[in-house]
Amino acid sequence: MNTYRLLLCTAVLVANCVAHADTWSLDSCVNHAIDHNLTVQASRLQIMDGELSVTEAKDKFLPSVRAGASQGFSFGRGLTAQNTYADRNTSNFQWSVGLDLPLFQGLSEYRQLKLAKSNLQKLLYDCEAAKDNITLNVITQYLQVLYAKEVLESSRSQLTLTTFEVERQKALVESGKVPEADLLDAEAQMAQDRLQVVTSENDVQVALVELANLLQLPSSIGFDISPIDEGEPIIPTADAVFKAAMLHNNSILSSRQGIKVAENQISLAKSGYLPTLGFSSNIGSSYYKVNGMINDSFSSQMNHNLSTYVGFSLSIPIFDAFSTRNNVRRARLQRVSAELELDRQSTELYKTIQLAYYQARGARDRYFASQETLAKTSASFNATQEKYNLGRATPAEFEQAKNNLYRTRINSIQAHYEYLLRHRILMFYQSNSL
Questions:
Q1: Whether pLDDT at 4 is above 60
Q2: pLDDT tens digit string along 123-136?
Q3: SS3 at position 67
Q4: Three-state secondary structure along 372-419?
Q5: Domain boundaries, the chain
Q6: Which residues contact 276 (CB under 8 A, 6 or more apart)?
Q7: Domain 22-62+106-274+321-431 in this protein, CATH class
Q8: Which residues, other chains included, contact 415 with Cβ-Cβ below 8 Å and sequence gap of 6+?
Q9: What's the Cα-to-Cα distance from 333 to each of 67, 173, 220, 256, rounded to whole Å?
C-alpha cells in the first residue's frame, strides 16, 4: 500500500511539473541566448575596451600639468664663501609647477582618434556578428526539437495501432479463431514499437538539453518550447538573398570596417614623417638655509629666487633608421590582409546562401512529394487494415502496410523541417531578423 501511495505521489508531481513547464517561443529563446552567451559577453567587454581607447585618444589633446617639491639636508664640512672648509649644516627647499602642451604632433593624435573610432565600430560589428551566429544556432536547434517531437508523436501513433492489434489478437486467440503464433508476432511488434517510442522520447530530451545549453540555462528540467506555424513559405532566390546580405550582414560589415581600420593605421604610421611642435612652461622657487649664518626669510628668498620659463620645441625627423617606413609597409600589409578577409567572407557567405537555397528547394520538393505519397500510403493502409479486419489480408501484409505508413510519415516530417530550417536561414540572411 505504501509503495502504491509513493508511486501515486510521484505521478502527481510529474504531472504538475509537466503542467507548469516553462514554454519558450523562438524569439524568447534567441533573446535569452544572446543576453547570456559567453562569446557575446566577451565581445561586449571588447567594445568597452574600444570605448576606453577612444577616450584615451581624445585625452591626448589635453595639456599635461605637473608639480613637485623637494627638501634636502646636508651635514658636515662644506665649502664657505672664503673658499675654506668649515663644519656647517644646511637645508634646501625647492618647488616647481610645469605645463606641457602639444601644438602639433605630426597629426598623430588626430589620426589615433580616427583609428580608435574605426576600431570601435569594427568591434560593434563583430559583436553583432556573434549574435547572428547564436541566432542561427538557436533556430537550428529549435527546429530540431520540434522535429523530434513530431517523430515522437508518429511513434506513439504507431504504438497505439500495435497495442490495439495485440488486444484484438488476444480476443481472437481466446475465441480460437487464430493461432497463438499470431498473438506472439503482434506482441513482438508492439515491443519494437515501444522501443521506438522510448528512443524518440530520448531524442526529444537530448534536443531540449542541447537547446537549453545554447541558452545557458542551468537545467532543462521543466523547459519546453512552443510550436511554430510556417505553412508552406516561399523560398527567395539565392541571388536576391546574397544581394541583400551584402548590404547588412554584420560579418561583411565587420570585414569592410577592417579595411578602414587598416587605412587609418597607414595614415597613423605616416605621421612619423612629419615634424612635431610643443610648448612648455615652468615656474618655481627655492629656499636655502645655513646654520650659524644670517639667512634671509623664507618669503624673501621665495620672492628673490622665483624663476619662470616659457619655451617651444620643434623636432624634425631626418633619419629614424627606416622605422617609419617599415611601420607604413607593415600597415599596408594589414590592409591587404583585410581586403583578403573581405573576399573570404563574401565567398563563404555566397556558398552558404547557395547551399541553403538548394537544400531548401530540394527539401520543399521532397516535402510536397512526400505529402502526396503520404496520402496514397494512408489510403493503402486503410484498405489493408479493412481487409485484415475481414480476414482477407495476412498479419504480415498488415504490418508491412503499417510500417510503410510510418516510414512515409517520418520522411515527410524530416523533409518539412528541413524545408523550414533552410527557409529560416535564407530569410535571416536576407532581412537580418527572425
A1: no
A2: 999 999 999 999 99
A3: strand
A4: HHHHHHHHHHHHHHHHHHCCCCCHHHHHHHHHHHHHHHHHHHHHHHHH
A5: 22-62+106-274+321-431, 70-104+276-315
A6: 102, 104, 105, 106, 314, 315
A7: mainly alpha
A8: 363, 364, 366, 367, 370
A9: 44, 85, 49, 16
